[in-house]
Design goal:
alpha/beta, Spore Coat Polysaccharide Biosynthesis Protein SpsA, Chain A, two-stranded parallel ribbon, about 15% strand
Amino acid sequence: MKTVVVVPVRDEADALERLLPRVGAQAGGATVVVVDDGSSDGSAEVARRHGVAVIGQRPLGKPAAVRCGFEYALAQDCDAAVVFDGDGQHPPEALPDMIGLLRSSDIVKGARFHPASPQIGTPDDRQELCRRIRDLVREHTGWVVHDPQCGFVGLRRPMIELVLSSLSWTVEWEIELIVWLRSRTVNGCPILELPIPAIYADLPGRKQAVKYDPAFSRARLQERFPRQARAVAEAAVRYLQLRTAEERP
C-alpha cells in the first residue's frame, strides 16, 4: 500500500531534528512530506537535510497545510495518507499500526485519551478540554470519540478525495471531520480509534515546553474551549441540519 505521511509544521526546527529520523525508521517505506506553514526558524532546511520532501507555503494555518499535504498525496498516486504532527506529540512508533489498520479501514484516528492510552505528563487542562469536547461531540453526533482534537489521522484515498471536496477546512478541522462523517453515516461510527500515549513531558522542541507550561493551564483552557466548542456547534449546523433538511419529504 502506497502511503504518504504528511507532517504539517510551523517553527518546529528543534522538534524535527529529533523526530524525523524516528519517523523515517517507522514509516515502512512511506513517503514523508513536511508542509512548512511559513516557518521562520529553518524548519524546511532541517527537513531537507533529513531527506524528506518539503512543500513551503505562506502562513495559512494548520488546516491549509494538511489540505496541501493531502493534495500532494493524491498527486503521488497514494493509497492512503497519514497526518502526523511535527511537534513531538505523536509517537512515530505508532505509525506501523496506523498504516497497517488503513489496509482495511477508511479512517483511523489516534486517541491520546482512550482508556488504554498512557498519560505522560498530561496537563490537567488538556484532559479537561478533551472531556468537554468529547461530551459535545457525543451530544451532537451520538458517537463516543475519545480524542476529537487529535491530529494523528489516517485516511484511505477515496476518503481523502471526499474530505478535500467537502470540508470547509476551518481551524478545528479534526472536529469538523467527525461531524461531517456523522452527516453521511447511517450505521455506526466509521472511525477506527488507535490508542496512543498522550505525550506532554520531554517534548523535543522549546516551543512545546512553553506552550504546555503548567503555570498557564487555566488560561489555556479558557482560551481553547470556547473556540473548539464553537467549532462543534458550527459543524453541526453546517452538516447535520443540512442532512435533516434534505431528508424531509
